[in-house]
């Protein structure tokens, strides 16, 4: 199948999941996770009208995204997100190329991002990453510490929180995976009620190629899809 066909298949899956959840497909943003994908493939996806792109690694951000041709993105919404674990010493390198960092999970990273914003007299949008599965292999703040962490952002006004993000449980058990996504939704709702999130910080970035339907059923507003669009990742 071609890239265009893969994208049509994902769009159809999103629409079917929204129908099952009694949701409007327009509520769902599709982010293409472009880890290890060459510039030519990313450019082809953008040329097909898919302008929300996410990278996992700082080196790939700095290597690839200066090469994206601006003429292709001038007529569409285009956002470059960072969706992987971000080391504080990589903040300066990626800062010019990303509009949103989805993986903010600790005070040191938040403070470094804020300092970089101050240096450039600008702002950045962020998601707070929460480890709802509590798997040691996954990044993200512990759900029990989320509210305390959110309180620190009153002193970091250059960071604009869009919502919460998580990587789902690595399991085939639908209800176990959905429990984690449901927890993220409930954390968002409680944080909004307590005034710990800005009123418009309602987004939930959750769900990937294998479980996007479950995430949509539990309220996802942004799903991150890589292999179902691009196929198996080529080696670095």
UniProtKB/TrEMBL annotation:
The modification N6-(pyridoxal phosphate)lysine is found at residue 35. GO terms for molecular function: pyridoxal phosphate binding. Keywords: Pyridoxal phosphate. Residues 83-234 form the Alanine racemase N-terminal domain. Pfam families: Ala_racemase_N. CDD domains: PLPDE_III_YBL036c_like. Its cofactor is pyridoxal 5'-phosphate. It comes from the Bacteria. Pyridoxal 5'-phosphate (PLP)-binding protein, which is involved in PLP homeostasis. Belongs to the pyridoxal phosphate-binding protein YggS/PROSC family. This is Pyridoxal phosphate homeostasis protein. It comes from Wohlfahrtiimonas chitiniclastica SH04.
